[in-house]
Batch of 2 targets.
Target 1
Amino acid sequence: MEFKMEELGYAFDALEPHIDAKTMEVHFTKHYAAYFNKALAALDNDTSKSVEEVLLTDLRPAIQNNAGGFYNHTIFWEILGKNEGKGPSGNVGKYMEQGFGSFDSFKEKFADAAATLFGSGWVWLLFDEKTEELEIIQRHNQDHPLCGKKVLMGLDVWEHAYYLNYQNRRPDYINAFWEVVDWEKVENRFLTAKTFSLA
Ligand code: MN3
């Protein structure tokens, strides 16, 4: 991923009523922009390396927190979009059935990981090319999910991601998330995402 702030690609109100426009606006223009700008400052504006390389080689907290926040959110914006009830198909659908038994069973496990993550953080869906298995992982704060596996999708469970609309009701936000996962984008990441890990 290049070190530049991406456009959102859809309007702030595109995910209403599941994720409200005000939350999207503040999340994108304030939180995301702040992570990006602070990461840039920590890098002295050197954008020659990819975000992934920076995250795996520069362990300063200012980099891990801010470049991590930048990286995590960029993937989050990418995979969001109203799915009008359409679930995963293709490879993602196939490996979901193989690994979790069904889409519903996958959703239950992912939602449980999101609901039980204490404090702020993310839940990620990864694909391990060696074992050909999907994997759900939790990461605290803005810790990145790069560990040699394909990063397919993530859910931000920081309070800033849902508090305006859902207050303390994180489970309601997680439920709403299923309406706005663009599974075509997730499948696209399955097909095109590269893997990154420390040498
Ligand atoms: Mn966030």
Target 2
Amino acid sequence: MKFITVENYETLSRKAAAIIAAEVIAKPDCVLGLATGSSPVGTYKNLSEWCKNGDLDFSCVSSINLDEYTGLDGSNDQSYRYFMNNNLFDHININKDKTFVPNGKATDIKAECEAYDNRIKEMGIDIQLLGIGVDGHIGFNEPDEFFTKETHQVTLDPSTIEANARFFESIDDVPKTAVTMGMGGIMSAKKVLLIANGQNKKDILEKAFYGPIDPKVPASILQLHPDVTVIFSEN
Ligand code: F6R
């Protein structure tokens, strides 16, 4: 595992974008595993700029996102599909038909999860971008008694609902459930890039990467992955 500490969010975002850009340049038809939340916003901004400048070409790239709230469709501005369009896909020359986000509005969530896992298996993820929750969640794999391998529906932890309330008008508007890629999908990525910023992420990073591997700290499973880069900025 490579643990890179940087001085601020701008540097974190530039470095993370550079790692993803290197992947796109080396393998123009690569599959990017993508995340939402506040951590990757700067990374996506850099990738968008570099694409606009002509330094990056996403025309053959596909993507698979980690998660989506249940009950929100892509036109809802709180949905992760909307976030991805707004923060990245609308600014780069990716073919949107090759960008995948779980369908939180699926009538049969179980079938949606199975289909998502089949897609992950078929496409294969070259590099998975991750953030980390203050409770150690990756994707929406919340602390539990065991690690869940498959894509599945989860009930969000109260700390996750509280953390995500900043994106909604009120905490009551935050969906209580979500669909998330499971640990099998995340661990199947050839490379993992986890980005975290802020003092409130320091303790959980310490536990996840230097403590025991424990489903109560979901990100700790990444200690078993052969190619993980963590970029952390306290500011
Ligand atoms: C988002 C996701 C979550 C976030 C995590 C950190 O797709 O999967 O695991 O990465 O909640 O969120 P931020 O970056 O907002 O601190």
